[in-house]
C-alpha cells in the first residue's frame, strides 16, 4: 500500500482516503504457470462440492493504493479463493482483492452484521455492513457508489436511495488474505427497525444477526466484541464517533 500506513489489530493496515478517491483500471499481469493453474482448479472444485452456489465472476484486485486513487486489474474469483485456501499461493498470485465496506449510520446509531457461520471467509465475525467484493457489473468500469448500492440491496434489502450521504474513510488491507476494504460511512434517515425488517424480508444470508451500536455504548461494544470485531469495522466506528449525527 502507498501513503501513510496506519497499523490496526490482527496485523491489518489502513491508508486514509481522500473524499475524491477513484478506481483506475490497468492491464492484468502475465498468467501464472500451469502448476499454479491446476492448484487453483483443484481448490475451486473442492469448494464447489461443498458450496454449489459459488460463482466464478470477475473481481477487481488492487496493484497500487494511494489516498486519492486505487489502481488495479480484473481477475477471476476462483484465484482469490485459492489464495485464501492455499497461503503458499499468496506470493505467486499476489492478489489484493478490492471490496467495498460501508458502516450504515442511522438516527439511532451504527449497524453491524455478524457473518454467517457458513461464510467462506471470517465466519462468525462482526463487521460493518454492507460489504462485498468489487465485481464486474457489465461495463468494465468501477463505480464505487454503484458497488455500495448493489451490496446494500443484496445484503440488507435496501435501495441505494436509502443513502443520503457517503464519506470515504480508509483502505484497509487484511493480513493474510490481502483483501482490501474501501471503507465508507453511509448515512441513512431510515430507523434501525426499518433496516432490520428489510434485511429479514429481502436481504441475503450474509449475516445471521444485525446489531445496533448506540453512540453512548460504543466503548462497551468495542470491549465486548473484542477480536470478533473486524479491524475495518473498528476504524469506521471510530470515524463515526468523531463525525457526529447528520
UniProtKB/TrEMBL annotation:
Looking at the record, the residues that make up the Nudix hydrolase domain are 95-236
Q: Where is the signal peptide?
A: none
Q: Which UniProt keywords apply?
A: Hydrolase
Q: Name one GO molecular function term.
A: hydrolase activity
| Name of the protein | NUDIX hydrolase
Organism encoding this protein? Rhizosaccharibacter radicis
